[in-house]
Amino acid sequence: MKRKRITQIFPWLMPIRKYQRLACFYMGMKFDREHYAATKKEILLPYELFESSCPLYNYKTGFDLVYQENKVFNLKLAAAAIDKLIILPNETFSFWKLVRYADKAIPYKDGLIMINGKLTTAPGGGLCQLSNLLYWMFLHSPLTIVERHGHTIKDFPDPPSDAPIGVDATVSEGWLDLKVKNNTKETLQIQITFDQNCINGRLLINKDCKKSYEVLNGKTIYYRSNNKIFEEVEVISKVISYGSISNSATRLLYKNKCEIGYQLPENIPIGEKGFHYE
């Protein structure tokens, strides 16, 4: 049997634990000698490196739609702290470094959030949709991924998106961050906008890098283990360079694994742990 954390045994300790984690979390960034991106510029950089969008509303959660409306409210607060951010050479992007005080003037509303492996509601719920979008954008750039955490459980099907599976990035203040570093000589910029149905992201750059990036899935399998169903998928990057001679390079970025907490379609084969598709 999995051991319970002390805060599960004594819930009254959670506020103290959160304060401790937050203090260490931000103190660590203060003294880690990294230069964190914090500058915004209203004038956008001239070249678009990548753009994407994602529907704001997921109607398959099983929860009241008010939590979807609250999520959109929370996303707009957080996105305002990131929109038009400049990432200079040698600077590091940190989701929480930027979003830390996004709700200082106007509090977050209750949205869906995963706590102790269970989907529930809490203030600020839904911000992972923003971190997911940002991570998807970063994968289509020369930025170096420093920290990323995938969701351990997928409780409902993904909304329609141009992204393959396994490219999510969950965040939890004090515990899990999304960080990338600009190890290039170029300057990049993030733009986040909203329309009636979607959140839209653009990654801009100061000059044409004559490259394009493609992220796709390799082998995907579903299997049972300890009476649970898991999804394991290869995430592959393809970089295409344009010049006098065009060429491409493909590499496996990682294998993403998560538990499936909803009923899969009947046409999807499910094996046992350790099996391989032919």
TrEMBL record:
Pfam families, A to Z: VanW (PF04294)
Record InterPro entries: Glycopeptide_resist_protein, Vancomycin_resist_VanW
Name this polypeptide is given: Glycopeptide resistance accessory protein VanW
Organism: Lachnotalea glycerini
